[in-house]
Amino acid sequence: MTTTVRISEPGGTFCSGVLIAPDLNAYPKARTRLVLSCAHFLRKHPCPFEVQAPGMPKNQLIDVRCQKFGDLAVGLLATPAPPRKLMALSSRRGQLWRTRTCTSGYGGGETQELKHRFGRILWPIPWAFARDFSTHVRGGATLWNNPKVVRGDSGGPVCQGEEIIGVQSLIMDPLGVDLGLATTSQVAPFKQWMHHAIKELYLANEVQDS
Questions:
Q1: Which end of the chain has less neighbouring CB within 10 Å, N or C?
Q2: DSSP conformation letters of 35-84
Q3: DSSP 148
Q4: Contact predicate 109/143, CB 8 Å
Q5: What is the pLDDT of residues 171-187, one digit of tens each?
Q6: Which domains does the chain have, with CATH numbers?
Q7: Measured between alpha carbons, how far is 191 from 210 in angstroms, rounded to an integer?
Q8: Which domain of life is it from (predicted)?
C-alpha cells in the first residue's frame, strides 16, 4: 500500500494525500518531501497545512502548486518524511472494469483512521465539475466503489496494482444520496505538469535534494 497522509488546515477541515518520489518512480524505501493531493482543497486555504500519517512524525506542507483547470496538486513538506515505500505514478490511464482499484483516504469520521475502498473503473471522462464549479477534473475516470468513497477521501491515491493511477476528486451524491460513484483525476496525462510543479517548488524553496 501507499503512504497515505492526512492534510488538515487550522479550521479543522482536511483531505488526504500520498507521498511521492521527486522522479515519480517507485522505491521500496525512500525519503521524500513531496505530497500528491487534490487542488480543490489546497487552493482554498493558505499554507501551512498539518500533515500526519501512522508512524510518521507530524509535519507541515509549506508550499503547493495546483493544476490550473484540473484537480491535481503537489505540495512540499517542511522536512523529509521518514523512509517509506513510494509507489510509481502510472504512465497509462487506468484499465476499465477488469482491474480492481483501491482508493485510500481518511474520510468518514473523526477517528483519523486510514481506510481502503475497493472498486473498478466504469468509464473515462474528459471533464467533470462540482455542482458549484469549485472542483474541475480533466482527464478523469468514473469509479464504482464498495465501501463508498466519502468526503475527506479527496486527494487520496487511487491505485491499480502497484501504481498510482489518480487521486480522488469528486463523489456523485444527488440530493445528498451517495451513489457509490466517484471521479478520479488520472495522473498519466499530467506527469509533465507534475515534473514542472516539483521543479518550481524546489527552486522557490531552495531545495537541493529530497
A1: N
A2: EEEEHHHHTTSPSPEEEEETTEEEEEEEEEEE-TTS-EEEEEEEEEEEEE
A3: P
A4: no
A5: 887 767 778 899 999 99
A6: 4-88+190-204 (2.40.10.10), 89-188 (2.40.10.10)
A7: 18
A8: Bacteria
